[in-house]
Amino acid sequence: MVYQIAYGVLGNEADAEDVSQDVFLRAYRKLGGLRDPEKFRAWVARMSRRLALNHQRAAGRAQRRNSSWLENSALPAASAETEVAARDFTSRLRHEIHCLPEHLRSVLLLSAVDGLDTRQVADVLSIPHGTVRSRLHSARKQLLRRFSP
Questions:
Q1: Contact, 78 vs 32, CB < 8 A?
Q2: Which of 53, 69, 91, 135 would be a feasible disulfide site paired with 107, CB 3.0-4.6 Å?
Q3: Helix crossing, 2-10 with 13-30: angle to 10°?
Q4: Long-range contact list for 70-79, CB < 8 A, 24+ apart?
Q5: How far apart, in whole angstroms, are the C-alpha atoms of residue 35 and residue 32?
Q6: What is d(CA 130, CA 138) in angstroms, rounded to the nearest whole number?
Q7: pLDDT tens digits, one per residue of 41-60
């Protein structure tokens, strides 16, 4: 039932499996807070739907963020001047990323360059998911400040 609900919302087997695992883990952790054991099935079903919707929203945000990152950094190669400007921009971007503090740089590189989502980055660095999101925000904000006129 949990998998079917997640798959119905997400339409992707791998994502539905991930959400199902999250649901069972959360249900196990919060089982003591369940007031009426007869409503366990409905409780888990609501949790499955809610986590699947959250996963779907997060994936949409990540996709928009990643596509806007690529669109903004991709410059058309119409002339030699444009190519030089693109190389200069890329070089400056690499330098500015290198100047970021290690804790921000590692999160940004794992996310933007290696293409990991925030949960995967949290697993790799053994830090909370919220910390990854906060550090990504800070890293992007610092880079934006450095590139603003």
A1: no
A2: 135
A3: 130
A4: none
A5: 8
A6: 12
A7: 888 888 998 999 999 998 88
Q: Which residues contact residue 19 at a Cβ distance below 8 angstroms, ignoring those fewer than 6 apart?
A: 6, 10, 48, 51, 52, 55
Whole-number Å distance between alpha carbons of 125 and 118: 10
Distance CA 142, CA 131 (A): 16
**pLDDT tens per residue across span 91-119:** 888 888 888 898 998 888 888 877 778 88
- Locate all alpha helices (DSSP H) within 34-116, ordered by sequence: 40-73, 80-99, 102-108
Decide if 140 contacts 96 (C-beta within 8 A). Answer: no
Chain Cα centroid distance, residue 127:
14
Tell me, rounded to whole angstroms, the distance of Cα 43 from its chain centroid. 27
